[in-house]
Amino acid sequence: MFEEVYGIASRVPPGHVVTYGQIAAFLGHPRAARTVGWALHSTPAALELPWHRVINSQGRISGPSAGRRAQEQRALLEDEGIAFDDSGRIDLEQYSWEIIP
DNA sequence: ACGGTGACGAGAT
DNA sequence: TATCTCGCCACCG
Questions:
Q1: Cβ A30 to strand B below 7 Å
Q2: Which of A12, A21, A43, A85 could bridge A33 with an S-S bond, Cβ 3.0-4.6 Å?
Q3: pLDDT tens profile A66-93
Q4: Cα distance between residue A75 and residue A8, in whole Å
């Protein structure tokens, strides 16, 4: 399943995002969102995936918000033109990408 | 085989 | 809205 997660993540176009739940559901495991998150957490750096384009269903960056990873993720997304509101949320209606087979 | 471990999610307060 | 709680499940010792 990890492989499949990486496969999908690598296809998310710049300027767009998908949620952990979306990926899980697409793979036929609607309740394995956590596993998707774990998969990305342990992504081999060599893969160079656009992991930053994967966020949670609330349109927010998961994990320790003060951590360096969260900071980097937000920076990368902003560079792609994605806007964050005052409470650090992304507008999914505007930026979410519908996974295409 | 078995249980701890999360970058989750939906529902309740 | 912001929090809290509880259910979930593929991995890896």
A1: no
A2: A21
A3: 889 999 999 999 999 999 999 999 999 9
A4: 22
